Amino acid sequence: MTRPTKADLAAAADLLLPDVIGPDLRVLFVGINPGLYSAATGHHFARPGNRFWPALHRSGFTDHLFEPAEQLSLLDLGLGITNMVDRASARADELTAAELVAGGEALAAKAARWRPRWVAVVGMTAYRTAYRRPKATVGPQDHRLGPSRVWVLPNPSGLNAHYTPVTLAAAFAELRVAAER
User: Fold this and answer.
1) What is the separation of C-alpha 25 from the centre of its chain, rounded to a whole number of angstroms?
2) What are phi and psi of 5, to 5 degrees?
3) SS3 for 120?
4) pLDDT of 86 higher than 90
5) What percent of the chain has pLDDT over 70?
6) In angstroms, rounded to a whole number, what is the distance separating the alpha carbons of residues 80 and 23?
7) What is each CA distance from 10 to 4, 39, 104, in whole angstroms?
8) What pLDDT does residue 41 have?
9) Best CA proximity match to 93, nearest among 14, 28, 160
10) Coil, strand, or helix at residue 12?
11) Which residues cross the membrane (predicted)?
């Protein structure tokens, strides 16, 4: 994958990142919104330093460390990726609460349409805001999106210092075990 230029990143704010989604998913992972790097490359969680792909592998969801360009291969494993908010930004904290609430409604519609077994929101603050659940913690939630159970995972951004690669992988592994039941 070619590294985007500064101009590519600036132009990425107007781009949409297509979902990796289909029927019969075990888990639909939900990022907060695409970063400019991801939007520029067309691949979810593409920024170097993002720990999504290593956590997915270390937790046992994948048999090897996927590159972001392999994202469509997730469908063969019953896994998918979407975002809470479609708009790309340099940082997730640029999103408004209204955008997150609207994104939560759009996510509920996707869950109703595609019916994944689990919807895993990768970012606790975004989940809390989108669904007005200020006390939510990492793990399974007490509500559903359509027929889908909901799980909250820590944000895999390298900026999230609260989770090490090991503890992040452990949080993903708990979901994997639940999704295999």
Assistant:
1) 14
2) -80, 170
3) strand
4) yes
5) 97
6) 10
7) 10, 10, 26
8) 95
9) 160
10) helix
11) none
